[in-house]
Amino acid sequence: MNGLIAKSFKENLPVEMIYLAANNQITHRRIIVKEIHDRYFKAFCFLRNADRLFKKENILSVMPERRKLLKSS
Length: 73
What we know:
Shape: globular
CATH architecture: Roll
CATH class: Mainly Beta
Strand content: over 45%
Number of helices: 1
Radius of gyration: 13 Å
Number of domains: 1
Strand order of the largest sheet: 4-3-2-1-5
Protein name: WYL domain-containing protein
CATH topology: SH3 type barrels
Organism: Mesobacillus selenatarsenatis (strain DSM 18680 / JCM 14380 / FERM P-15431 / SF-1)
């Protein structure tokens, strides 16, 4: 998990994560990490279209960005 967060930060690449929000809602986010700290990180969140702070302990899953496959004719 930390590897993908670090890769997003170093390479400015989007990743997808499943996150437990403060209101106990599980959300699916597409993010690009901007800063990494001990217990949290700052990332641009495409769902909210803004920079957000995320607690590392609330991350349920992180995965590489899924790309939509184009159908070939």
